[in-house]
Amino acid sequence: MEKFFDYIDSSLPDNPQDKNMYKYKRALLDEMESRAFELEKRGLTDENVVADLVIGEHPDLKEDYNRYLLDLNAKDRCRRFIISNIVGSIGYILAIVVLYLLFSKSTHLWSMTWAFLVDGILLWLVYLLSIGVRSFSKKKRVFHIVARICLFVAVMLLSVALLLLFIAVIKPPHSWLAVIGGVAAAFVADGLYAVFTKQSLAVINWLIYLPIIAAMVYIILCTCSVFPWTAGWVIIPAALVADMIIAAEAVRRNAKIKEEVIDSWNES
Prior knowledge:
There is one protein chain. This protein is an all-alpha fold. The chain has 3 domains: about 1-60, no CATH class; about 80-200, no CATH class; about 200-268. Helix content is about 85%, strand content about 0%. It is built from 10 helices and no strands. The chain has helices spanning about 1-10, 20-40, 45-55, 60-105, 110-135, 145-170, 175-195, 200-225, 230, 235-265. Helix 7 packs antiparallel against helix 8.
């Protein structure tokens, strides 16, 4: 309809330097004509009424165009981000392989340098998982579970990378404790994520995690002879006591909030 064209052209004057303007106006005109045809199929025969209804659905074309540009820029940034990560990942993998071969051949420390290659790949996986954490955290809460899984796996991969470094290079006693520490760190990271993203079951998570973390800490400290096994076990009951304190505080706080809501309701 000519009325649509006039409305679009008057609301969004042509700008030769803005290549997106023409695309948007063309797409908008097609959309409005399609909408008008839909209304006519439903029985509206007066062209002026149809035109007014369709135009009324787009009261502020400048604002609509700004949203269109924001969406377009977001898609463009996403595309560039994906491409840069693909290219960067390929370059990174090639770089660590070349460095591994050059360094190993020059030093003949093949029995040690393999850990740097594997750890480099593990760190790359951790980076990819961190992207997953960030991406899924921006989505609806139903996707936060995926972000938490990515975070948990990322922390565990870091602990495995540390373990391999210990085994191949540093070779401390009880290097396997790196994995035990990784489990504890993964639970801590997940608990903190639940708190900072205000998950509804954050308190329940900590009530479950604290005894597990305490058990991991008990194993690490006693294996490293920081505490004797016969005395270090008190860490676990201490965690259970902390659980009871946290649970009691959560109940008290919820009761207080409920009381405030009831008082506010009664006052109104």
